[in-house]
Specification:
By secondary structure, this protein is mainly alpha-helical. The chain has one domain. Helix content is about 80%, strand content about 5%. It contains eleven helices and four strands. A hairpin with a 2-residue loop joins strand 2 and strand 3. Helix 3 crosses helix 6, helix 9 runs antiparallel to helix 10 and helix 9 packs parallel to helix 11. The radius of gyration is 22 Å and the shape is globular. The N and C termini lie far apart (about 70 Å). The C terminus is likely disordered.
């Protein structure tokens, strides 16, 4: 039976890194974001916008050049923002990381060094930076709504229409760091080389978002437990994929199946505890009135 520990552990490591670094960066990023937040309706619109963009990537082939420019600009702004903030507002230091990134992409993106190494390194870095930059915008309620909607969208676009897979192929052809690709461990050899597992940056962001928001709601320890649960769930799905399904599968579903049961249990336990406290308090108050 084939299984893989490389990608589940990578997902777990990125989620933990996002949890740890968020405590270091949250206060500095709040000033940049100016206390803006994504509400429930904003979360619905965001998922709708993402769906439209995915369809545009697939059906409007002329958008590839625009797509490349947008990705390079977004990644460069992320690198500049974090470089600027953590170099104590020195713009000449903040500008170095995006310049290096753009130059590497321009001159070595078709080389094995970029395809197998640099693209994955940048992908992991951007997965963490995107999470740190956007997570402060979400409320707990918006996170829950976004989690459900993005999972439904992923299921439809991967399992029903296949549009997400086509969009991933288009972006991959540009050699943009939009996915992380690692060899399956234990190694599996095929006629084309080692069997690889790929996961999009959006899935890493999703796991990081759920982990950080859980930490804010229920504490770091419980957030780490949910991160472990997401990893175990992802591992189980990967085993099924490698041995039985053998097809692309929604990463968000693999992740949320580990997170949701624990959070639902926690919510129900908290409500039950609150009701018990209320039931104990009310009789004592009534007794005081009678006396």
């Amino acid at each position: 039976m084939n299984f893989d520990i490389a990608m589940p552990l990578t997902l777990f490591a990125v989620t933990l890194a996002s949890l740890y670094l968020n405590r270091k960066t949250e206060s500095k990023l709040k000033d940049t974001m100016q206390e803006r937040q994504i509400g429930v309706w904003d979360a619905v619109q965001l998922v709708g916008f993402m769906s439209v963009m995915i369809y545009l990537i697939v059906f409007v082939r002329q958008i590839t050049l625009v797509l490349m420019v947008l990705f390079l600009f977004a990644y460069s702004m992320l690198l500049f923002t974090f470089g600027y903030l953590f170099s104590k507002n020195r713009w000449y230091v903040g500008i170095l990381p995006p310049v290096v990134f753009v130059l590497l992409y321009a001159f070595v993106r078709d080389t094995p060094a970029w395809v197998f190494y640099l693209s994955n390194i940048y992908g992991l870095v951007f997965a963490v930076l995107i999470t740190l930059y956007l997570v402060g915008l979400f409320t707990w309620k918006a996170t829950a709504i976004f989690g459900v909607l993005i999972t439904v969208m992923d299921i439809v676009l991967v399992l029903v229409t296949g549009t997400m897979i086509e969009a991933a192929n288009v972006t991959s052809s540009l050699n943009l760091p939009v996915m992380v690709s690692v060899p399956i461990i234990p190694l599996v050899s095929t006629e084309k080389g080692l069997l690889m597992m790929r996961l999009g940056l959006g899935d890493f962001f999703f796991a990081g978002l759920l982990g950080i928001q859980t930490s804010k709601k229920y504490g770091t320890r419980f957030a780490i437990v949910t991160a472990m649960a997401m990893t175990v769930s992802f591992f189980i799905f990967v085993v099924l994929l490698l041995n039985y399904l053998q097809r692309p599968f929604p990463g968000t579903l693999m992740i949320i199946c580990g997170w949701a049961p624990l959070v639902i249990w926690k919510e129900l336990t908290a409500k039950k505890s609150l009701l018990s406290e209320t039931a104990v308090t009310l009789p004592s108050q009534e007794t005081k009135v009678e006396n």
